[in-house]
Amino acid sequence: MTQVLHEPSIVTRSVTMQAAVVTEFGKPLQMREVEVPSPGFGEALVELEASGICHTDLHAAHGDWPAKPKLPVVPGHEGIGTVVAVGEGVRDLVVGDKVGNAWLWSACGGCEYCRTGRENLCESQRNGGYSVNGSFGAYMLVNADYAVRIPDGADVLEIAPILCAGVTVYKGLKVSEARPGHWVAISGLGGLGHVAVQYARAMGMRVVAVDVDAQKLALAKRLGAEVVVDAKHVDVVEAVQRATGGVHAVLVTAVHPEAFGQAIGFARRGGTIVLVGLPPGEFAAPIFDIVLRGLTIRGSIVGTRQDMVEALDFYTCGLVKPRVTRAHLDEINDILAEMEDGRVQGRVVIDYRTPYRAAIGG
Ligand code: NAD
Ligand code: ZN
Ligand code: ZN
Asked: How far apart are CA 224 and CA 18, in angstroms?
């Protein structure tokens, strides 16, 4: 494609936008008028149409993790919109293209991890809505080489959760090494988990779904889980073992450390437990059990650009369909509070295309 250089002339210092900003950890996000950023070398400016709200955004706002974002920061890494300006040095992206940001906002491209197809492990990576401002504002920047190309005709609200939830669980299932016909336990059926059930089914796996919320279990059942287990009311390890004889793989997306310890008990001999959820805390790993049963415990962090292309293809082919509720950016603190209480079903997605009142209840 020919290189197209656009002067980012519409973006001047005086142009501002509404954004939800973390100014202090543990405090509500502040709705602020901030400057619309100008795209630097290799970057593009995107006018937002939709953005999913991930539990990671809540961790960011709380400062939950050892590596904290520098404040102030605009969270959001499931953003989709239209390119309105491109900086110098941008190839393959022009004004009018539909793109998204992602957690893997950029990587160095030259380190051992980047060279060996593991750019999601790059130590010099930048992260959308964490080390770079994200999609909780009217505009955001993307790195043209790492921006997510959104397939033509996609429903932006529905496809937005694929940009983090989708790619993360798809990658997690791939590294679980579960095969068609194998049993997989999905622990945690929120934004990530409810799409994980669908990816696992589409990949030919049998699903046992675990959560502490009856409504989420009911959704997992509708999405194809053969067995659902309410971790609040039964001995969850015994229930999973009884139903499946032990699963070949577990994907833990839950936001409580207790679920991580339990997951070890779900696996059959030789099984793999993939940790994806990131609640602050620790869990006990029983040495004897892990050694004698030949278990593998591994972490998995989002996915590469190629994983993203594949994860989006599942959506485009109709194999996965995130369950989304529309909201407006103004409602962000209420939504994060609901998420903290475990009351969000599926994914809440901010709709930037409609005025406030029209967005409510969508
Ligand atoms: P969510 O709030 O939508 O869902 C969390 C789910 O965990 C809820 O359904 C809740 O009921 C369930 N849960 C809570 N306690 C449980 C328990 N004891 N047992 C079973 N289920 C339990 O959150 P989300 O957006 O799906 O994110 C989940 C986690 O994954 C977060 O910690 C997030 O930061 C992390 N995450 C990791 C990656 C990665 O690349 N590794 C990517 C995205 C998100
Ligand atoms: Zn996320
Ligand atoms: Zn690198």
From this structure: 40
Least confident residue range of 10-24, 102-116, 117-131: 10-24
> Backbone phi, then psi, for 103, in 5-degree steps?
-60, -45
CB 77 within 8 A of CB 134: yes
What single-letter DSSP state applies at residue 274?
E
Contact 64, 280 (CB under 8 A): yes
CA 287 to centroid of ligand 2, rounded, Å? 31
CA of 212 from ligand 2 middle (Å) equals 21
Distance (angstroms) between ligand 1 centre and the Cα of 222 equals 19
DSSP class per residue in 57-83: HHHHHHT-SSSPPPSSB---SSEEEEE
Q: What's this model's pTM, rounded to 2 decimal places? A: 0.95
The CB of 210 under 6 Å from ligand 1? The reply is yes
Question: What are the tokens at 37?
Answer: 């950023």
- Closest-CA residue to 302 (of 72, 130, 135, 71): 130
Q: Is the dihedral of CA 80, 86, 90, 92 positive or negative?
A: positive
Q: Report which of 48, 65, 35, 87 is spatially closest to residue 131, judged by C-alpha positions.
A: 65
Q: Hey, what amino acid is at 131?
A: S
- Got the DSSP string for 126-184? EEBTTTB--SSBSEEEEETTTPEEPPTT--HHHHGGGGTHHHHHHHHHHHTT--TT-EE
Ligand 1 close to Cβ of residue 78 (< 6 A): no
CB 21 within 8 A of CB 30: yes
Nearest CA, atom 29, ligand 1: 277
pLDDT-based confidence at residue 356 (cuts at 50, 70, 90) = low
Q: What is the pLDDT of residues 164-178, one digit of tens each?
A: 999 999 999 999 999
**Ligand (nearest to CA of 175):** 1
Q: Is the predicted pLDDT of residue 13 greater than 60, yes or no?
A: no
For residue 171, the ligand 1 atom closest to its alpha carbon is 40
Q: Rounded to the nearest 10 degrees, how much is the dihedral formed by the CA atoms of 50, 106, 59, 177?
A: 100
- Does the Cβ of 216 fall within 6 Å of ligand 1? yes
pLDDT tens per residue across span 260-273: 999 999 999 999 99
